[in-house]
């Protein structure tokens, strides 16, 4: 199923503000899907030869933005290399094709747009680096930084890419951005609640074993516990820690016995 996210887009005030012929983004998405599945993009060429490769809808979305956001790498390559689409056009929300590619983590598309000369910083609110950091796309963050993205750029909340990574707890990105900025990254600040807790090994209290599990009828008396050979009537199943679990039935009750050496305890 195709899904277009219109983050950053706001409806333009009047049709006169739209550029060129209005396009249908959802119709374009269906066209991209069909031609990508077929591996034949002649219908994409035909569409933009008729419509205009830089035409947009009334939200300012261009065909290149749609392809970049939905991850159609071959369509993006066709549009920027062959059809010469403008990679720096922005919609009403100041988002460019590069912003959408970075936001969705499409590294190949981001690389193609950068190689074509796309503006790496765009607008503070639509900064590709900030959006890649917020959405936890480390490979895209690295790609943008290598393209000289401004790591200290802030949005309207006064937050940088690093600030967003900290807020969203994207630790790999935090470590990377700290490293390239020469900031000490204190791993001990990582919340302990995110660390898996070690499971406690079950302990057998031998002092309680005799009161929990009485010897079966016919078993020899033992001051600590019953005869192990009489406790189980099903073959024991080895546990990870060397304990053995076995089902037993005694005195009209049914349960599970855990054995440590000569000690048998009931687990309810």
UniProtKB/TrEMBL annotation:
Domain of life per record: Eukaryota
Region of interest called Disordered, as start-end residue ranges on this chain: 192-240
Coiled coil: none
UniProt cross-references to InterPro entries, sorted A to Z: ANKRD_45/46/60, Ankyrin_rpt, Ankyrin_rpt-contain_sf
Keyword Nucleotide-binding listed: no
Keywords, comma-separated and alphabetical: ANK repeat
SMART domains the record matches: ANK
Keyword Transferase: no
Positions annotated as ANK repeat: 93-125
Designated name of the protein: Uncharacterized protein
Organism name: Lotharella globosa
Lineage per the UniProt record: Eukaryota, Sar, Rhizaria, Cercozoa, Chlorarachniophyceae
């Amino acid at each position: 199923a195709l899904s277009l996210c219109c983050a950053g887009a706001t409806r333009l005030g009047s049709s006169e503000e739209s550029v060129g012929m209005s396009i249908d983004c959802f119709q374009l998405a269906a066209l991209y899907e069909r031609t990508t599945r077929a591996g034949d993009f002649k219908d994409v060429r035909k569409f933009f030869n008729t419509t205009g490769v830089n035409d947009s809808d009334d939200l300012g979305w261009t065909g290149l933005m749609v392809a970049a956001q939905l991850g159609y790498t071959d369509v993006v390559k066709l549009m920027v290399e062959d059809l010469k689409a403008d990679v720096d056009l922005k919609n009403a929300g100041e988002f460019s094709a590069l912003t959408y590619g970075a936001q969705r983590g499409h590294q190949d598309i981001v690389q193609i747009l950068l190689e074509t000369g796309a503006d790496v910083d765009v607008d503070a609110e639509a900064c590709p680096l900030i959006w890649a950091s917020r959405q936890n796309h480390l490979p895209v963050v690295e790609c943008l930084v290598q393209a000289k993205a401004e790591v200290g750029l802030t949005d309207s909340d006064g937050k940088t890419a690093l600030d967003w990574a900290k807020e969203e707890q994207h630790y790999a990105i935090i470590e990377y951005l700290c490293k390239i900025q020469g900031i000490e990254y204190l791993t001990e600040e990582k919340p302990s609640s995110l660390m898996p807790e070690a499971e406690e090994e079950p302990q057998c209290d031998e002092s309680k074993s005799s009161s929990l599990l009485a010897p079966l009828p016919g078993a020899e008396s033992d001051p600590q516990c019953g005869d192990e050979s009489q406790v189980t009537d099903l073959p024991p199943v080895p546990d990870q820690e060397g304990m053995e679990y076995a089902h037993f039935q005694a005195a009209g009750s049914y349960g599970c016995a855990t054995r440590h050496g000569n000690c048998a305890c009931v687990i309810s």
